[in-house]
Design brief:
The complex is a heterodimer of chains A (130) and B (195).
Chain A (H helix, E strand, L loop, with lengths): L12 H13 L4 E4 L3 H17 L10 E4 L2 E6 L2 E11 L4 H18 L3 E13 L4
Parallel strand pairs in A: 4-5
Antiparallel strand pairs in A: 1-4, 2-3, 3-4
Helix pairs in contact in A: 1-3
Chain B lengths: L15 H6 L7 H5 L1 H23 L10 H17 L2 E6 L4 E5 H13 L4 E10 L2 H5 L3 E3 L3 E10 L4 H20 L6 E9 L2
Parallel strand pairs in B: 1-4, 5-6
Antiparallel strand pairs in B: 1-2, 3-5
The chains are: A alpha+beta (130), B alpha/beta (195).
Amino acid sequence: MSEQPTTGRPVDHETLAEMLEQSLSEIPGVIRLEPTLKSTMTRIRSVSRRGMSKWTSPEAETASTGRDGIHIRIDNRVANLTIELATNISHSSVETAKVAQQVAVETIKRAGLFPGSVDVSILSIESRTQ
Amino acid sequence: MALEDETPRLGCGRRIDDLWEVIDQPLNPHEKSCPDCQQARVALYNLASVTEAMRQHDPGQAALQPSGRVKETIMMVARAEVRRGRRIQLARTEAGTIHISAHALAALARFAADTLTGVRARRCSIDPFTPAARTGDAVVESSDIRITLKVAVSSALSIPPTMEALRERVIAVVSAQVALNSRQIDVIVEDLYDV
C-alpha cells in the first residue's frame, strides 16, 4: 500500500446535502427537516439544472442546492446554510437549534469545506414521538 | 357525513386561496385593517414573483411546464409557509442566527394551556411591540414581541387561581423552549364553558 499522502477533494453539493440531511435528522429533538418554499424551489431548480447539464456541461456544478429543510450555497469553498426544523417539545427548541448548528459546522468541515453562516429556523414544535 | 374543509385559513378565518385569487387587486376594506391578511399578502407576493419568473423563463414550452404533482407540492409548501407567519429571532450564535416561526410559538403557548385541567386554549396572537414592525419585516427580534393567549375556562373553576396557574404553566413551557421572558406573555379569559 502506498504511503504517499493524498490530496482531499471537497465533496460536491449533493453529497454535502446528503451528509447534512443524515446528520441533522439524527439529532435528539429533531423530528424532521421541514420543507419550505425556498428549499423546495432550490431543489427543483437544482434537479432541473443537473438534468440539463448532462447535455450541456457535464462538469458544471450548481451554486446552490437543497433538500427538504436544507438550503446550501457554496462560494469559494465556503458553505452557507439555511436549516428549517420541526422539533420535539421534550427538548428545548433553542438548544436543539444550537446543536443543529454545531453538527452542521462539523459536517461542512468533514466535507472539506469552510463553514460560513448556519442559520436555523424552528418552524414547528410537536409532541409526537420521533 | 359532510367532509371537513381542510383548506388552510388565516388567523382571521379567511381562506388563503381566497386571498391568492385577488392578490393582484388593491386591498379591500377588510384587508386594510387585518394584520393576518396583510402579512399573508407579503408572503404571497413572493410566491407571485417566483411564479412570474418561471412563466417568463419558459414561455409556451409545454415540455418545460411543471407537472401537476410538482405544482401541487409547491402550493402545499407555499400554503404552509403563509400559515407559519413571521419569524422571530431568538438568538445569534457564532455559527449564525436562530429563528422560530410565529405559528410554532403560538402552538406552543396553546399546548401549554391545554395541559391544565379546565382550560381550553383558543386564539393565540404574536405581535411586535413596535408598531412599525407589525406590517414591515417578516423577521422581528424576540425582545420585541408580545404573546396574547385567549382561553375558555370551566365555569366550575375559580378564575383567579386558575389564571395564576395557567400563567405559570405557559411561562414555564415557553421559557424552557424558547427563552422568552414573562413580561411578554398575556393571558385573557374570553369565555366560560359548562362542565
